[in-house]
Amino acid sequence: MTIQTLSYSTATTTTTPKASLIKRNGQVSYRLLERMTESAYRQHEARLRNNFYI
């Protein structure tokens, strides 16, 4: 049986990836929103051009 203990140095490094994970989630969410917006624009492009002269 092995006992795993965390030292203070590893305990502080385990909290640092959370910030980068939040940042990566934000970037992925932004890219997803961008793709959804682009696909919605492409889907309704003809209607937008006719109604709003874009």
UniProtKB/TrEMBL annotation:
<protein>
    <submittedName>
        <fullName>Uncharacterized protein</fullName>
    </submittedName>
</protein>
